[in-house]
Specification:
By secondary structure, this protein is an alpha/beta fold. The protein has 23 helices and 14 strands.
Length: about 600
Amino acid sequence: MSKLDDTIHRVTQRVIANSKDSRSAYLDLMRREADRRPEHKDIACSNLAHAFAGAMEDQEAMKNRRGPNIGVVTAYNDMLSAHAPYYRYPERLKLHAREVGATAQVAGGTPAMCDGVTQGEDGMELSLFSRDTIALATGVALSHQMFDGVACLGICDKIVPGLMIGALRFGHLPTVFVPGGPMPSGISNAQKQETRQKYASGEIGRDELLESELGSYHSPGTCTFYGTANSNQMMMEMMGLHIPGAAFVQPGTKLRQAFDRAAIHRLAALSGTTQRTLAQVVDEKAIVNAVIGLLATGGSTNHAIHIPAMARAAGIRIDWNDMAELSRVVPLVARVYPNGSGDVNQFHAAGGMAYVVGELLDAGLAHADILTVWDEGFAAYAKEPVLEDGALGWAAVETSRDETMLRPVSDPFQSDGGMRLLTGNLGRACFKSSAVERERWTTKAPARVFEDQSDVLAAFKAGELNRDVVVVVRFQGPRANGMPELHALTPSLAVLQSRGYRVALVTDGRMSGASGKVPAAIHLTPEAKGGGPLARVRDGDVIKVCAETGELSVDADLEAREPAPDREAEWGVGRELFRMMQAHADGAEQGASAMLASAGL
């Protein structure tokens, strides 16, 4: 294991310094919360009776405090294939708890929307703020103060960040995240991508497209592309919040069941101690490790928003400058679809997170000394899980089993990380370089300005975009309409690119972890609403998007122009219920959260 890289050390020390006051205040609060936790003897008997009434066979154990009581916060629903396996988890986790003299109760459920279902639809405008809603639901679940440890059941895009933010406000408790695993692989990603582009260009019909999509998303389990959901699981490994190696083991297998048992047994062992609480595990080094994992694996751009938000909930300040500086020294060692051809099942089979962690630690590119939920520390996450005589065990991963997906630090796919910061007179934006061919990292072309993604698709179908073009989609920021993902634009823009045009997207919206091969400057801040620079751009303005130099600029005197008027907020599909969150949300770089901003965090 090599000495920690100097840049990673410097960035970490800067994060620690910038977080000094807020982190200290957070840890003081957690100490006070631990001290004020009521003992059962101090709680009114009526209150206890309410808490125990539904516990059935566990009532006696809970009444007599025979062991710790674990609170399960579940995001189960079967609209999400990833969360469908959680259906039987409450009964199973209770059985696992009883094996070690503990009890478990479902403390509460959280909403969990599927961005795949709402992609390109009006409901997507609720997506980002569902993260705040999940955090609030987690807070409600744990506010009963009846629990000695927390098991968080969540996988997908906003769910894990929301669970994390909510649970961190109860950070005096030990907490383990319990994933469910990816579905088996379906049709090849290349075939899926080709079919989408054929549909976008009118070569095939809807029936053929639907059959292709059903071949990709076909059974319970996480979608197998490396989007936000699977990036979440990577980050939980990099932060030490999983049982080591839990991220990408498929549902319904004996190995998956062994992980679930181990998670509850581990929580029972940690409960009642003051060691390895969530507040202790999620520190500045753990947050930096999450960023490093994101960069090394080409993970979801959504985490440029989620990581700052999760960090704030723990009193930690990290920004895009920190992430960009880390990206300069963290090599890209994994290519998983949409950055490569193989999916997360193939990634896991090639060595997966165990190989990535091992390579990063050996090269001094990750913090080895983070506190994890596991006794052996972060080094344990550099081994892959196996079943040994029916019991959970771990084995070393010496080499990559597929160098088209995983490469050593000494011979990476790219010498720097998968994301870049762009700045200029249009503001600050993120660019996912790992998914884009280097020859397309620079685009300079006239702008075509839109305020709705449906208008982009209409212009594409009408042939109006058959040229070199920078497509601007504005008023898509958190305060304008909740910052929806614009992933539905990818197939059409990819068709333009395949026709030989230089194409790029500039938006104050999001593109998700599946943003693909089209150059995109996303999460642009300040957003257009309220008069940001993007509101002053006009059709024909020449925009430069350059990941090589980090430039995002327009050849126009923006100050001399009046901004376009703010779009009027639309009603329907529940969007009006989230107006308060939109009105109070802060910028994308801060995490785009109304809840954290309102709380002064």
